[in-house]
């Protein structure tokens, strides 16, 4: 039975990231998703232009150029696990300090999140994200700070997937397990 459709979305919650593992053939798999707590805002802007070709004194051919998204993700704090696993910061276990290196190797990751809706929350996954290191700042007083992370979500090499989301017709087993692993269509499903 088809459920009622959302007419609006609002809110941001259930944010997770999953480190990508790239195989020799370029295919991506993902580690188990980890929670990214304290999310306050997510903004995605399309990356790519509309390609137009003029002939016969008209727009003869038009096609979108989908290069994914550029985005910002704001949260209370960037988790230390994310800084280490994704942005390549190093932890000195002996002294208990964490260091950012200028030549650190970052890792691609999947970003998973949920927007509330008037009927049912919609769950999303961006498959091939890369993030820039966050800024750092604070001010005197008890005003709570947020940290903004800039990132790109580009087509995944191999299958060119950018984003997948749930709909009102998503099977309950898929919807309920959305944050357990990065969604991949399985053969025969």
Give an account of the 3D structure.
- The chain is 6% helix and 43% strand.
- The radius of gyration is 19 Å and the shape is globular.
- It is mainly beta and 189 residues long.
- The protein has one domain.
- The two termini are 19 Å apart.
Draw up the topology in text.
Layout (H helix, E strand, L loop, with lengths): L8 E14 L5 E3 L3 E2 L3 E8 L3 E6 L2 E7 L4 E7 L4 H6 L4 E3 L4 E3 L9 E9 L4 E10 L15 E7 L9 E3 L6 H5 L13
Antiparallel strand pairs: 1-2, 1-3, 1-10, 4-7, 5-6, 7-12, 8-9, 10-11, 11-12, 11-13
Structural descriptors:
189 residues; mainly beta; 9-stranded antiparallel β-sheet; two-stranded antiparallel ribbon; 13 strands; globular; Phage tail protein; Maj_tail_phi13
Quaternary: single chain
Q: How many domains would you count in the coordinates? A: 1
Relative strand content: 35-45%
Ends distance: 19 Å
Structural class: mainly beta
> Which shape, going by the Cα principal axes?
globular
The largest β sheet comes out as:
9 strands, antiparallel
H and E string: EEEEEEEHEEEEEEH
Percent of residues in helices comes to: under 10%
**Radius of gyration in whole Å, from Cα?**
19 Å
Summed up:
InterPro entries: Maj_tail_phi13 (IPR006490). The chain has about 190 residues and is mainly β. The chain has helices at about 80-85, 170-175; strands at about 10-20, 30, 35, 40-45, 50-55, 60-65, 70-75, 90, 95-100, 110-115, 120-130, 145-155, 165.
């Amino acid at each position: 039975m088809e459920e009622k459709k959302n007419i609006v979305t609002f809110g941001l919650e259930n944010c997770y990231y999953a480190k990508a593992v790239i195989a020799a053939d370029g295919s991506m798999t993902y580690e188990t998703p980890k929670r990214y707590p304290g999310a306050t805002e997510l903004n995605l802007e399309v990356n790519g232009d509309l390609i137009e070709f003029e002939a016969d004194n008209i727009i003869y051919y038009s096609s979108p150029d989908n290069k994914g998204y550029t985005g910002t993700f704001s949260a209370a704090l960037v988790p230390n696990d994310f800084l280490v696993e994704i942005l390549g910061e190093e932890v000195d276990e002996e002294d208990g300090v964490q260091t950012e290196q200028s030549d650190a190797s970052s890792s691609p990751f999947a970003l998973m999140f949920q927007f509330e809706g008037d009927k049912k929350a919609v769950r999303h996954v961006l498959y091939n994200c890369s993030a820039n290191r966050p800024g750092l700042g604070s001010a005197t007083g008890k005003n709570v700070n947020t940290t903004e992370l800039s990132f790109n979500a580009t087509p995944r090499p191999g299958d060119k997937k950018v984003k997948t989301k749930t709909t009102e017709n998503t099977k309950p087993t898929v919807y309920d397990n959305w944050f357990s692993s990065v969604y991949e269509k399985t053969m025969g499903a």
